[in-house]
Design brief:
8-stranded mixed sheet, alpha/beta, 34% helix, 11 helices, 8 strands, Rossmann fold
Amino acid sequence: MSTDIDLKNIVKAKYSEIAHQDKADNAASCCGATPTSNKVYNIMMDDYSEIAGYTADADLGLGCGLPTAFAKIQAGDTVIDLGSGAGNDCFVARHETGPEGKVIGIDFTEAMIKKARLNADNLGYNNVEFREGDIENMPVGDNVADVVVSNCVLNLVPNKAAVIAEIFRVLKPSGHFSISDIVLVGELPEALRSDAEMYAGCVAGAIQQNEYLRFIEAAGFTNIQLQKSKSITLPDDILANYLDEKAVAAFKQGETGIFSITVYAEKPGDKIKINKPKMTIAQLQANNCCAPDSGCC
């Protein structure tokens, strides 16, 4: 059985390769896709092309949702993107934060970090940075982010509970996250299980949706919401390799399957207040303010 380190090394090697491919090749090769299917290119990914801040050079076709569209990002926010790849979600988030905000992308693949930094330089963004690191142990301090986003990444990570605990740590009190990911609902047919989990989970594997949500609750998050759920339809030519015609029909009509979900949750607590230094009487008077004991009020 592969260890966590083995799985991480497999993912790192795979995504180092992906960093040097174009979007069409990535969409057709990611997550266990086979060359027999002609529908692989749009099984999981959502269309970013009409989203403000979209950068075509940063879109490698690897996502399974649009978390930034649900993330309630405000001008001036600090946003962290987990598994930032070539920077696509970071640049969309930057459009929402504006130049007064800050966006930090974290990825453990050196080739992706280099590609993302080049894209940021080409765009002239000096408030978007990319840090190489493991999202199970983020290179970020405590209580840093107003918002955390991620797009189809936690399914790649062996220790999902550790990542969710890290999200809790780096968020400011009352901060929140919006994450798109792949989960399973119900037990897949035995004949499909190994291939479909590889297909949906991009090597490390998706987990049951209920288990995924329990990890979030156990970490201390509140106001957990399922913002979007989309069934991932496996192409008929893949299903036909494992199931007979009757079994294929039953699987496609049932509620068991593979889903892309977008989950929102909040870290409890009051917003961190920045205490401004008190002004002296001279400063108050210089600003035409009414200083205490000045006799002007």
